[in-house]
Design goal:
By secondary structure, the protein is mainly α. It has ten helices and two strands, in the order ααββαααααααα.
Length: about 230
């Protein structure tokens, strides 16, 4: 445990995490006002992917969890009537779905990045960027079919005419619609920028680790010299 604290819980790492969390909060709250159909865009996937690539699967999952919490807060504050309806009608499953898809959307891209980066860093960023919206939307669709009746009620409450429409059409077209393709395009377009940022920050991490390693071993060498002098 002490080793983990030394390697991760540094001022620099905590600052990076705080910046990513702030971006997630701001972007998600702003995206609550931008909708096509009934659901909001998830612009927050970009900082979640970047955080996971830079700091590992655990941080990616944690940032995804923050994303899920912010979605729930936005719903409770009235910014997302669709999710608010789901919370009122099926609170336990809605909370689970928001958190699960958020955590997965952070953890899976980070894991894929680690695996693919061994072969090609640029391709790894592309794969991670593409995986985030696929996982996020895919889990939403799976969860929506579980509570399809509640989804239909939410659409009706928002004034959408769903008479005669199948659950597949309601979920895949009316709920997801073009949102997924826009989110996917945003993440793919941002992947070159993510690659550049990732390379720059990884160099900073490497320099910091090297400096800490040299400092630690210099201190150990000094202690050994003192011990040798005492023994002599």
């Amino acid at each position: 445990m002490e080793k983990v604290k030394k390697t991760f819980f540094t001022a620099k790492n905590i600052t990076y995490v705080a910046v990513f969390v702030a971006l997630i909060i701001v972007l998600q709250m702003c995206s609550s006002f931008i909708k096509i159909g009934t659901t909001s865009f998830s612009f927050v996937l970009v900082p979640i992917v970047l955080g996971g690539m830079l700091m590992g699967v655990g941080v990616g999952a944690a940032l995804g969890a923050v994303f899920g919490v912010v979605v729930l807060i936005a719903a409770l504050s009235g910014l997302d009537p669709f999710t608010l309806y789901l919370l009122n009608e099926n609170p336990v499953f809605t909370v689970f779905l928001c958190l699960a898809k958020g955590v997965a959307a952070g953890a899976v891209p980070a894991l894929l990045y680690r695996l693919v980066a061994r072969k090609n860093g640029h391709v790894a960023v592309f794969v991670a960027s593409a995986a985030a919206p696929v996982v996020n939307t895919g889990l939403f669709i799976a969860g929506a079919f579980v509570i399809s009746g509640t989804i239909e009620g939410a659409m009706t409450s928002l004034g959408v005419d769903i008479a005669g429409l199948s659950p597949f059409y309601i979920i895949l077209v009316l709920c997801v619609g073009v949102n997924f393709f826009v989110e996917f395009a945003i993440d793919i377009i941002c992947s070159p920028a993510l690659y550049t940022v990732n390379r720059v920050i990884e160099k900073q991490f490497s320099k910091g680790k090297k400096h800490a390693f040299v400092k630690e071993h210099s201190a150990e060498g000094g202690a050994d010299d003192i011990a040798d002098r005492d023994n002599s």
